[in-house]
Amino acid sequence: MRKKLILLIFGIFYSLTITTTKVSASTFGAEIFCTMRDGGNDHESSWEAAYSYIKKQKGGLFKVSPKQAAAEITESVIRNRENLSYCVEYLDKLHPNRKLQRELQKERKKKELEESNEDFSEETFERYSY
Length: 130
Fold this sequence. Notes:
The chain is mostly helical. It has helices spanning 2-38, 43-58, 66-79, 81-84, 98-118. 71% of the residues lie in helices and 0% in strands.
């Protein structure tokens, strides 16, 4: 009985500690993103800095996906609107149109393939040209 009580207390303490770390990592990740954007940095460098910080701080068994980190930054900005109100205008780039991105990537690959095919002349493919 005593061992169960100790394990229960340890479990509660551990979960509270982990939750606090996750919340502060997300909050500080949002501050990194917003401060960098407000300082004139582009979206990519600001995002990479914030995302790498969140990944590093959360650690653990499962990795943080970019989508999850973006949602956490957005949530932190909304929750802390008084201090981060200037950052709301930058949040749209954290949630890009994934379908549009896939289509653009397919177009780029198709264009690259067409360009690489143009490099080969008809003579290259003639089977019996000895």
